[in-house]
Amino acid sequence: MKRVVLMTLRGVGLAILAILGLSLGSVVRLYVIPKVIADFSEEPAAATEDASGKKVAYWTSPMNPGVVSLSPGKGPMGMKLVPVYADQMGSGNSVHLGAPQIQNLGLRLAKAEKVVSTESLRSTGIVAYAEPTITDVTLKISGWIESQAVNYVGQRVSKGETLFTFYSPELVSTQEAFLLGEKQQEQGGDSLLGAASPSGDVLPAGERLEYWDVPQKEIEAIRELGEPKKVVAFESPADGWIVEKPSFAGSYVPMGQRLYRIADLSKVWVYVPLYQSQLSMVSVGDEATLTLAYHPNRSWKGPVTYIYPEIDETTRQVQVRLEFDNPELLLRPGMDADVTFGARPSDDRVLVPRDAVLVTGETRDGPDGQVKLGTAFVRVGPTSFEGRTVTWGADTDDQRLEITSGVKPGEQVVVTGVFGLNSEMRRRQASLQLVEQMLKQKGEEPEKKNSAE
Q: 282, 295, 387: which is closest to 338 by C-alpha?
């Protein structure tokens, strides 16, 4: 009984070893590196045809396709070598397969489709101040800032609100002339006390104060006071936020120097850089939609207002300007924003399933920058496939890739078994190279196969 059990265990062990051997053999069959065998041939001469008259490219082991020989015989494991026919080898990046190989690789095909559709252009932009809403506060006379009621950047101001008080000897003397003129006018005399204008005419002192942007209520206060004020208050000329304040209390201010910059954020601009190839999809007046990452449920709509005429020499991009209303002040200058331009009819596109492209990670220079490369296998015969380098672009929502070159509409591409087919093609290329080296060592020229076959 013990002997029967031992024999049974031995039989099971041998069976397991046999199964493992078959599995390893199938793995080696795809990925083993071809090697030359020598001195195993039973026939002294290299055979180029078998008994049926078909041309033989080389001989190999049925259990180890990495074994390559120019003559029939037995392999290292004692098994009889089998022929690999020339019409099975293909040429270049093409490969011919038998029905069993196609079944073992599990190849499945799909057709490259030509799609005519509307498409939207998506890009990113930068929120900026709308230039027409920016106001600079300057003075038309020189003097000193006595005090500042608005004294930090980011402070909101209203039109007519006091910004600062200002002292200037020229401003004081003009007030004196203004009051003297007012007094003479009351007495029925000439009130044209003032200074000469650029045209040579004499300007009344009151008019000069207005030209210097002295607020009307300050002029009325001077008139009521009846004497010059040492400092005069100046007001904000617009509603908005203080975005720049290069001045401080006590500082001397020459004529024309900027004291404040005020921007109204109720309207903003957004700058979007686009490549030259994308400009055909955008026109002035087109509506665009803006979204923010931190406000995913909100969107803003605004028009394309301007496309700048110059191209950035570094990025090779063109700036497109959009305008958006910002009543809730959620769009802040400097923010990144996602912009989608309105859908419009697009050029015909070739789409293939995502799995049909073996992405290599390689790129090359194109007219609009770097293009992405990959490999796709196209059916060129009933059981023949050609590996092609393709360039691809957009990844669609339905798991398809846009092919920009390498595959034509209507061609069938491999979508399942791509990795196995790629390995088989490279193994055969390596075997052919080895055969060519062996023939050259024997002093024979390898037969050139016509790629058109």
A: 295
Question: Residue 333 belongs to what domain range?
Answer: 121-128+265-346
For 160-169, the pLDDT digits (tens) are 999 999 999 9
Query: Which DSSP category does 41 fall into?
Result: B
pLDDT digits 0-9 by tens, 161-192: 999 999 999 999 999 999 988 888 777 655 54
Q: Residues 301, 291: contact at Cβ < 8 Å?
A: no
**Same domain for 239 and 300:** no
Indicate the number of domains in the chain.
3
- The answer to whether 365 and 80 have CB atoms below 8 angstroms apart is no
State the virtual CA torsion across 88, 94, 98, 104 in degrees, nearest 10. 140
pLDDT given for residue 24 in this prediction:
39
DSSP state for residue 138 in the 8-state scheme: E
Supply the pLDDT for residue 189: 55
Q: What is the largest CA-CA distance in the chain?
A: 147
Q: pTM of the prediction?
A: 0.52
Closest CA to 453 of 145, 209, 89: 89
What's the Cα-to-Cα distance from 314 to each of 10, 275, 363, 369, 371, rounded to whole Å?
Answer: 74, 12, 19, 12, 18
CATH code of residue 301: 2.40.30.170
- Amino acid identity for residue 217 in this structure: K
Q: Is residue 27 part of a domain?
A: no
- Tell the residue number behind the tokens 């809730």, with chain if given: 328
- Of 429, 291, 407, the residue nearest 350 (C-alpha): 407
| Residues in the chain, pLDDT under 50 | 1-12, 14-47, 192-202, 450-453
Which residues lie below 8 Å from residue 449, measured CB to CB, with a gap of 6+? 86, 89, 91
CA distance 321 to 446: 64
Q: Answer whether residue 31 is part of any domain.
A: no
